Amino acid sequence: MLLCIIETAWWINRANGKSGKKVRSVKLVRCVRGKTVKGGAVGRYYTIDETDIGKAVTPSVRSENSDFIKTFTLLRGKRVFYRPRSFDGGYYYTFRLI
Q1: Confidence of residue 28 (pLDDT cuts 50, 70, 90)
Q2: Which residue in 8, 27, 29, 31 is deepest, having the highest Cβ count within 10 Å?
């Protein structure tokens, strides 16, 4: 099984009110318990906490400058969308199990 992590940057232009987005990185990670993967340019990293062979994976998202950890269970064939709280731009993540 592979975990696909898509990291997308989004922003709002305060001068004209328009918004935009751009895919910053796409990572394919083999699902091995305890594996840690460095994220893109924002100081995040991902850890695979648990694996249920062929069915589900439990990854967590961590930040270098915070104690906040977001953990969720990802089923095969489903997507999880995660956007940290931000009002004027930042990054959001899409996780998919292949």
Answers
A1: very high
A2: 31
